[in-house]
Amino acid sequence: MGKPKTDGSPPASGRLVHRGAEATLRAVDWWGFPAIVKDREAKGYRPKALDERLRRERTRTEARLLVDARRAGVRTPIVYDVDVLHHRLVLEELPGPTLKSILEDPNLAPTLVRGAVRSLGMALGKLHAGGISHGDLTSSNVLYPDGPEGPPALLDLSMGTRSPGVEELGIDLHLVEEDLRALSPESEALIRAFHEGYAIGNPDGQSAVRTRAKEIRGRVRYA
Ligand SMILES: Nc1ncnc2c1ncn2[C@@H]1O[C@H](COP(=O)(O)OP(=O)(O)O)[C@@H](O)[C@H]1O
Ligand SMILES: [Mg+2]
């Protein structure tokens, strides 16, 4: 055991999986289950009270939305534990490539990649139809636990909202489209597949959300 941190949170141990701008993730054994401990680290440049509040809120939001998304029929890691006081989540560890690594793999068959993107569209459609926006839907926040042919799991929902407006939904769509454009030479075919899936997952909302995503793209490009 390491020295306790000054904020009193237990020292984290386990194999380092990822160190991002917001959080550090470690792989651990959780009562016999492979798990990920996600610690939101303190940010020294924020006043301490604000920093504490933001980390607590995001930890809480992420836990809630991961659970809500599962209820809406979208795969997410199971939340094993929430320690809001210490800004810590313990999540089921899921195997599988990220969407980013699928898009960057030159050896994958294009039909397989299109299928993976189409099923992401369906999952996002279901999330939206269930009244949840993701808020940070980059290709690193999508995993394929059963491989590119299986349904995706969504990660990292701390910037998501309940009862989102069409703007939040449009941003989710826009972010995926931008990642597809950045990472694949086949982006137009992939965006079509993504929209096709989205229309199945969110049949009532799809037209308005796609229109808004287009508007957002125009705004970003000509701003
Ligand atoms: N439950 C999980 N199972 C397996 N890998 C995970 C899990 N959660 C996160 N990861 C991996 O760690 C990376 C960062 O996790 P994420 O929750 O997105 O943190 P950040 O907020 O720093 O982006 C992900 O892109 C993914 O590769
Ligand atoms: Mg992330």
Textual characterization of the structure:
The radius of gyration is 18 Å and the shape is globular. It is α+β, with helices and mostly antiparallel strands and 223 residues long. Residues 1-6 have low confidence and may be disordered. Helix 3 (110-129) packs parallel to helix 5 (187-201), helix 4 packs antiparallel against helix 5 (187-201) and helix 4 (166-183) crosses helix 6. The chain folds into 2 domains: 15-92, Phosphorylase Kinase, domain 1, CATH 3.30.200.20; 99-222, Transferase(Phosphotransferase) domain 1 (Transferase(Phosphotransferase), domain 1), CATH 1.10.510.10. The termini are far apart. The protein contains 6 helices and 9 strands, in the order βββαββααββββααα. It has helices at residues 48-71, 99-104, 110-129, 166-183, 187-201, 206-222; strands at 15-19, 23-30, 33-40, 79-83, 88-92, 132-133, 142-143, 153-154, 161-162. The strands form 3 sheets. A 5-stranded antiparallel sheet has the order 1-2-3-5-4, with helices on one face. The chain has a two-stranded antiparallel ribbon with strand order 6-9. Strands 7-8 form a two-stranded antiparallel ribbon. 45% of the residues lie in helices and 17% in strands. It binds adenosine-5'-diphosphate and magnesium ion (MG). Adenosine-5'-diphosphate binds next to strand 1, strand 2, strand 3 and strand 5.
Topology:
Elements: E1 15-19, E2 23-30, E3 33-40, H1 48-71, E4 79-83, E5 88-92, H2 99-104, H3 110-129, E6 132-133, E7 142-143, E8 153-154, E9 161-162, H4 166-183, H5 187-201, H6 206-222
The chain binds adenosine-5'-diphosphate and magnesium ion.
